[in-house]
């Protein structure tokens, strides 16, 4: 075996997967057909549940140094309707505005410092698989060679060769519109008003959010006074090559066609262009071959692709590592498709709804958007849509009865007190290991979990208004099990033992490749 896991594609998904695998004690090989990192951004940042997960890995502050904004989103577009989270006590959506090339640079540095190998200019030609391994033929700068891997993960984008060669259908549709968008410096001649609207010389007030004409849609927003976010969506009149770099002139011309006049733009910070598609692979696994990121799903509205794709990797990595180390219980790898296909379908549902909401220009479509906007003036619908965008509304579909409301949920970052001082969930999860968190000094629970001490961490802490007596947290930060407060010992021990066995296997099986290093 040349490598335990071969990752195809060194975009954000492949690089994040490589880093997560390293945390779990597996050193993957990453191959990328492009000889150099891409400098054409396809996304302008991260939005959703992936942002707190990066915090749990100790990466958010490091990445935020390179972002134009990091924190709660004051608002967000949804299908041509502007969401205003300002009336809420807490925004349901966290964002990290960072151009994709810089994100890839940071993720590549993270993966390599943890031990991953990245080979650029290496293209997969063919592969075959049997019960023991995947055999992959690769064309590199010095010729053709062969790699034998335990598992192969296609993170090679919407046009995935891995998906096609595996014979996995990718049904869906492509939309006729093209969207050109960018972050530019705020022009000196433009005034950002307290309302978020823009005062543009020669034009007047342009409202923040969406401006519709019979030629398309203009969107404007600003998280900071120094940076303007702008996009123009129209039927593509130029049949532009989506792989060629977009220029500021192209963006400016698209805005002029949509709006009927030019608006001043500052210096470009980040520019991109995309044709929307709505697709999802019928299955995310074919025996020893897996799909993640755009290879598994494409969404027709912004904000979902990287959030869902990077969360795919957090779900898959620890399960692959369990298989590599020899202790994966039966069916563990199948849970990747079951859990993440559901998450992808949920994201596809809301982004298709956005596309339908945004596309029409007739009076009926306008009335639909106005009614939708009116509904979002109420707090509860606004919170639900925000959670839907973040992918925080979906609990992982875990086996057995959901005996506790937190089972399957993403772990909240509880503040904790321990014998060593104050800490929180994020600090305890930086090494990416499963965690039993005892919040009520339950020696019986800790004793049960010690059978798995080579595979999970065990911590005792207290917190104000504890949500449970104890939490069993998976490496992807989802709660696998929770003990009701003051639940009887006999039932608690039995359910904890069953859950530990289900996710982390037979504790008597030998374990290799234990990782104890901090993230």
| Percent of sequence in beta strands | 25-35%
Number of H/I helices? 13
Distance between the termini: 27 Å
Structural class: alpha+beta
Please give the share of residues in helix: 25-40%
Overall morphology: globular
- For this structure, the quaternary state is single chain
Overall number of strands: 28
Low-confidence stretches: 514-519
Average pLDDT value?
92
Provide the descriptors you would attach to this structure in a database record.
single chain, 6-stranded antiparallel sheet, disordered C terminus, globular, alpha+beta, 519 residues, 28 strands
Report a brief summary of the structure:
The protein has 519 residues and is an alpha+beta fold. Strands 1, 2, 8, 9, 10, 11, 20 and 21 form an eight-stranded mixed beta sheet that branches. Strands 16-17-18-12-19-22 form a six-stranded antiparallel beta sheet, sandwiched between helices.
Descriptive notes:
This protein has 519 residues and is of the alpha+beta class. The protein has 13 helices and 28 strands. The longest helix is centred in the C-terminal third of the chain and has 26 residues, at 334-359. The protein is globular and about 75 Å long. Helices cover 30% and strands 29% of the residues. The strands form 7 sheets. Strands 1, 2, 8, 9, 10, 11, 20 and 21 form an 8-stranded mixed sheet that branches. The chain has a 6-stranded antiparallel sheet with strand order 16-17-18-12-19-22, with helices on both faces.
């Amino acid at each position: 075996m040349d490598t335990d896991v071969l990752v195809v594609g060194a975009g954000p998904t492949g690089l994040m997967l490589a880093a997560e695998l390293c945390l779990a004690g597996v050193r993957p090989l990453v191959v990328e057909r492009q000889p150099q990192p891409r400098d054409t951004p396809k996304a302008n940042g991260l939005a959703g549940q992936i942002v707190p997960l990066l915090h749990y890995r100790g990466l958010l502050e490091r990445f935020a140094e390179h972002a134009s904004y990091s924190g709660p989103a004051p608002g967000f577009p949804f299908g041509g309707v502007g969401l205003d989270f300002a009336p809420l006590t807490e925004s349901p959506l966290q964002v990290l505005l960072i151009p994709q090339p810089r994100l890839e640079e940071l993720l590549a540095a993270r993966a390599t410092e943890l031990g991953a190998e990245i080979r650029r200019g290496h293209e997969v030609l063919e592969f075959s698989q049997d019960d023991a391994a995947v055999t992959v033929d690769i064309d590199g700068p010095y010729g053709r060679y062969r790699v034998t891997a335990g598992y192969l993960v296609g993170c090679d984008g919407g046009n995935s060769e891995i998906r096609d060669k595996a014979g996995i259908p990718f049904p869906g549709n492509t939309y006729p519109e093209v969207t050109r968008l960018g972050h530019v410096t705020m022009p000196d001649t433009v005034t950002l008003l307290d309302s978020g609207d823009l005062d543009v010389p020669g034009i007047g007030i342009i409202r923040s959010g969406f401006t519709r004409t019979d030629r398309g849609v203009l969107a404007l927003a600003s998280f900071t006074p120094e940076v303007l976010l702008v996009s123009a969506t129209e039927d593509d009149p130029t049949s532009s090559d989506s792989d060629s770099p977009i220029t500021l002139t192209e963006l400016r011309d698209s805005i002029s066609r949509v709006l009927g006049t030019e608006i001043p733009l500052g210096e470009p910070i980040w520019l991109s262009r995309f044709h929307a598609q709505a697709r999802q692979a019928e299955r995310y696994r074919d025996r020893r071959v897996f799909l993640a990121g755009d290879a598994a799903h494409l969404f027709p509205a912004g904000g979902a692709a990287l959030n869902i794709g990077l969360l795919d990797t957090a779900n898959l990595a620890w399960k692959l590592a369990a298989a590599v180390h020899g202790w994966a219980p039966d069916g563990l790898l199948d849970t990747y498709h079951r859990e993440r296909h559901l998450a992808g379908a949920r994201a596809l549902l809301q982004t298709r709804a956005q596309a339908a909401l945004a596309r029409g220009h007739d009076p009926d479509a306008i009335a639909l958007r106005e009614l939708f906007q009116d509904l979002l003036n109420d707090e509860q619908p606004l919170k639900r849509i925000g959670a839907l965008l973040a992918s925080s509304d979906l609990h992982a579909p875990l086996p057995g009865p959901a005996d506790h409301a937190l089972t399957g949920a993403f772990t909240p970052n509880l503040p904790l007190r321990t014998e060593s001082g104050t800490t929180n969930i994020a600090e305890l999860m930086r090494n990416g290991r499963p965690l039993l968190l005892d919040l009520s000094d339950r020696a019986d629970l800790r004793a049960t979990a010690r059978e798995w001490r080579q595979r999970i961490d065990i911590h005792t802490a207290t917190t104000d208004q504890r949500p449970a007596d104890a939490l069993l947290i998976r490496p992807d930060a989802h709660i696998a099990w929770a003990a009701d407060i003051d639940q009887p010992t006999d039932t608690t021990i039995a359910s904890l033992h069953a859950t530990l066995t289900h996710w982390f296997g037979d504790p008597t099986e030998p374990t290799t490749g234990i990782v104890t290093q901090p993230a």
